[in-house]
Amino acid sequence: MEVITRMVADRPVVIFSRTTCCMSHTIKTLISGFGANPTVYELDEVQNGGQIERALQQMGCKLGVPVVFIGQQLIGGPNQVMSLQVRNQLVPLLIRAGAIWL
Q1: CA-CA-CA-CA torsion sign (72, 57, 83, 19)
Q2: DSSP helix, strand, coil percent of the chain (3-state; round to 5)
Q3: Computed from CA positions of residues 15, 19, 24, 29, in that sequence, does the dihedral angle turn out positive or negative?
Q4: Is residue 88 a contact partner of residue 31, using CB atoms and an 8 Å limit?
Q5: CA distance 31 to 53
Q6: What's 65's DSSP letter?
Q7: Cβ atoms of residues 92 and 99 within 8 Å
Q8: What is the C-alpha end-to-end distance of the chain, expressed in Å?
Q9: What backbone torsions phi and psi does residue 68 show, to the nearest 5 degrees?
Q10: Percent of the chain with pLDDT over 70
Q11: What angle separates helix 78-86 from helix 22-33, to the nearest 10 degrees?
């Protein structure tokens, strides 16, 4: 879990993803569509992707990718992100994290 903490430190939005995952693409597009520039780690391309994925699972992310952190806080997967969006809570969260300015 320490590796995850280092990877999300000082970054307003971090998405752990896979290049072949359509839900990862959807979440990256949604967040980028608000003007945010998320840091994206493609677990199938980084050298220690398996280790990172196991650490995310230990943090409670049982369904794989995508996994989203906003303001160094674990948000979760696509269901959690879309739930925030439907409740109009995603943009305020991105603003508080300094990911976007309105």
Answers
A1: positive
A2: 45, 15, 40
A3: positive
A4: no
A5: 21
A6: S
A7: no
A8: 33
A9: -115, 135
A10: 100
A11: 30
How many CB atoms lie under 10 A from the CB of residue 55? 18
Which amino acid makes up residue 27?
A: I
Please name the residue ranges forming H helices in the chain: 2-8, 22-33, 49-58, 78-86, 90-96
Question: Are the C-beta atoms of residues 84 and 70 closer than 8 Å to each other?
Answer: no
Chain position carrying tokens 């300094």: 98
Which amino acid, 65? V
Tokens matching residue 92 = 């305020």
29-78 pLDDT per residue, tens: 999 999 999 999 999 999 999 999 999 999 988 778 999 999 999 999 99
Report how far Cα 17 is from the mean position of its chain's Cα atoms: 8
Q: Is the pTM of this model over 0.90?
A: yes
